[in-house]
Amino acid sequence: MRLRPSVLLIAGLLPAADFRIANNRVQVLAGAEVVAESPAEGLWSVSCAWRDGWPADWHHASPTQTLTAGEWTILKGELSACGGTLQLEDAYRLENGLVRGLRRFTWKGKQPLSQATLSVRFMAPSESAQPVLPGILYFGNPSGARSGRTPVSTGRPGEESIYEEHRYPMPFASLELQRGAKLWGASLHTIPSPVPYANLHDQWWSLGVIAQQGATELTALSGPCASNGKRSVIKAAQRSFVPYDNAYLNLPPNAVVEKSFYLEAFPVTQPGSAFQTSVRSSIALFKPFYAEDLPAIPEIVRAKYRYALTRWRETSDYAIFQKYVDRTQGVMGWTGQAEALGYALQILAPGLNDSKALTYVQKSLDFLSTAQFYDAGFHTWYDLSKKQWHSQEFLNQGQAMLTIARAIAAGRTRGLKTARWEEFLKHAADVHSARILDSNWHPRSTNEASLIAPLIKASVLFSNPRYRQAGRAAARHYAQRHFNMSEPYWGGTSDASCEDKEGAALAFAGFLELYELTRSPEHLRWTRHAADVMLTYTYVWDVPEPAGRLTDHRARTRGGTSVSVQNQHLDVWGALTAPDVYRLGQIDNRADLRQLALVMYRSAGQIIDPHGSQGEQLQQTNYAQLGRDVAITEMRGGYHEAWTVFWITAHFLNGAARFSELGVPIWK
């Protein structure tokens, strides 16, 4: 049976998916191409036993009846197995460019069905398939694989990559499929949910992919998880996986279990871009735009400024915002952000009503401009006890240079004394331009993408074409490495050598700055790609949490960001990058991005205490940074508030200042 073609468009770019029923199989189409379909053995698959740590004794069934109800196509069948009968029903319709599915299992046996596993399965035939599981797996995680601490996949037949739904910031499993000379995309989106009649505490549906010979399976299971060649494990510790066995169901007579999901299929024109369609679909599906139950921006800014003042340290030798509450270090860039308020307070001062705000700006940047240089840049750590500069980190240097460039631009218009800052930035830009334009420059990871934006800004501030040349060279280098996703963006978090949102965000910020200068369509494509990778780490839905600190605060996860494929807790880092998302929304005239950006910022401010402080690590999933000694039942819903490095304050003020410059009325 062939249903009428859909005329909807996904994001105004690609034809919407369609579906048909052929030979008792549900087929998902892009145009005339069957991109994914239900398995040949049957539309429904149910496991009746649990052996050797995995579902066993699988049985399959195909539809015996097809009917329609309005826009719905309904398929019915029965499965006589497991000592009784399962009544089975699927319903499908086209919805906003996706194929919506609703699956129902009803156990009609006279006795309980124990150790059962239910499933949603669709096969995507291809010569090769590259998965993107948001926040978890990017084209196999080739960089993270070297660390041995992340999920990995190689595409070998039988390889299973299946994870709890609450681990997914955007709950979809996406595949980029190679068929001859053509590329296709296929994704399974789910509406995440705990599974009823579960054997384990807080057991949810799981989602992922299974590599097969000549095909890859998009799959959702009623609990079982697998990764890295091991079954019944989850990524619950920073450096390792932990057991997660017996994730089956115990169904009483007349039990009903339903699962909602969406399927999409589409042609792909550029290698490495299939996931981008699913990012847009996920945002459209969950619409994470409501912000009225989140803290207001003025409240966040005033609380963070109040707390920032507790980190100010000034003597005759230095004037700096301290990184730690209890350790005498000031650090530019990454987790220290000692330079950030030198820009932010210039923009925010009128609303803060503090006559000293600009004094902190002048004194801090004057002092930071004395940082000592070495042959490849400048030191970013300052020991307040020893009164010494130390450490060599390119990521920190790039972030510091960008903020100082913004501070110079703002300071020139406000009559501040910027000469020292300008001399320092020129020196840094000279050093890094020389490095980047050297034929031997080949950075290890994406972390040196932090230099693109400041070099472009410095080229404008100082009318220096060499800085522009270096910034463009670095941008092209990273686009060539990452745009096709054979090497996904990685290395932006200094404590995890793996695929991460911060690596993607560094490239995003750099490409965006370059586009602002050139208005080149190519540079805009790079910008959108890096932005979409970064956004896959952003939660578009609210994860219901068990009893714990997050529930104590009525915390919402929408807008929050997962850290990396290694460190899979939630953090408040989105406060920094949200303005870039907003700016892209302005450029592309996308209200969804502008709304999401504001939610990202406000969501990050949810757990600020009365002093203006908050911790970094929110445990929205089965993951604890502290390690293996934390019981799984104590992980989800927890909150580690002791790690309060200064970025957790500075990013909020920096982000608010940038929103203000983009025209957002932050004080209303």
Could you describe the 3D structure shown?
- It is a single chain.
- With 668 residues, the protein is α+β, with helices and mostly antiparallel strands.
- The protein has a domain at 9-286: Beta-galactosidase, Chain A, domain 5.
- It contains 15 helices and 36 strands.
- The strands form 11 sheets. The protein has a 9-stranded antiparallel β-sheet with strand order 8-9-10-11-25-17-16-13-14, covered by helices on one side.
- A hairpin with a 3-residue loop joins strand 1 (9-10) and strand 2 (14-15).
- The longest helix is centred in the middle third of the chain and has 21 residues, at 394-414.
- The termini are far apart.
- Mean pLDDT is 95; it is low at 1-13.
Brief rundown of the structure:
With 668 residues, this protein is of the alpha+beta class. 30% of the residues lie in helices and 27% in strands.
Q: What topology emerges from the helices and strands here?
A:
Elements lengths: L8 E2 L3 E2 L2 E5 L2 E6 L2 E5 L6 E8 L2 E8 L3 E5 L2 E10 L2 E12 L2 E10 L5 E13 L2 E6 L3 E2 L3 H4 L14 E5 L7 E8 L2 E9 L15 E7 L2 E7 L4 E2 L2 E2 L1 E2 L7 E2 L5 E3 L4 E13 L5 H13 L10 H12 L3 E3 L4 E3 L7 E3 L8 H13 L4 H12 L4 E2 L2 E2 L2 E3 L4 E3 L3 H21 L4 H19 L14 H10 L3 H18 L18 H18 L2 H15 L13 H4 L8 E2 L7 E2 L2 H14 L3 H14 L12 E2 L20 E2 L6 H15 L7
Antiparallel strand pairs: 1-2, 3-4, 4-5, 6-7, 6-12, 8-9, 9-10, 10-11, 11-25, 12-19, 12-24, 13-14, 13-16, 15-18, 16-17, 17-25, 18-19, 20-21, 22-23, 26-27, 28-31, 29-30, 31-32, 33-34, 35-36
Helix pairs in contact: 2-11, 3-15, 4-5, 4-6, 4-15, 6-7, 6-8, 7-9, 8-9, 8-10, 9-10, 10-11, 13-14, 13-15
